[in-house]
Amino acid sequence: MKKQVLARILTIGVLHLVLYGVVVPFVIYPRFGEKGSGIAVAIILILTLGIMASLGLGKNRKGEKNENP
Asked: Which of 1, 53, 46 is nearest to 19 (CA)?
């Protein structure tokens, strides 16, 4: 379980690093301007929330299985 949590947190970190450091400034901003950058940031945040929600849901499911064998 701890390996899965660590993997998801590292995935979020790498996702943000690559997207904010490379994709948004060098690909999206020159092509689409500020509106495109805003949309890209919104999509990144939605992806992050989805990853974090799946992490929380995974904990709830495993906890339920352990409580009711």
From this structure: 46
Residue 59 in this model has a pLDDT that exceeds 80: no
- Per-residue pLDDT tens for 1-17? 688 888 888 888 888 88
Which of 19, 15, 52, 50 has its CA nearest to residue 37?
A: 19
Residue 69 lies in a domain: no
Whether 47 is covered by a domain: the verdict is yes
Alpha-carbon Rg for the chain, nearest whole angstrom, is: 16
Report residue 13 CA to chain centroid gap: 8
Asked if residue 23 is part of any domain, the answer here is yes
Residue 33 lies inside a defined structural domain of this protein: yes
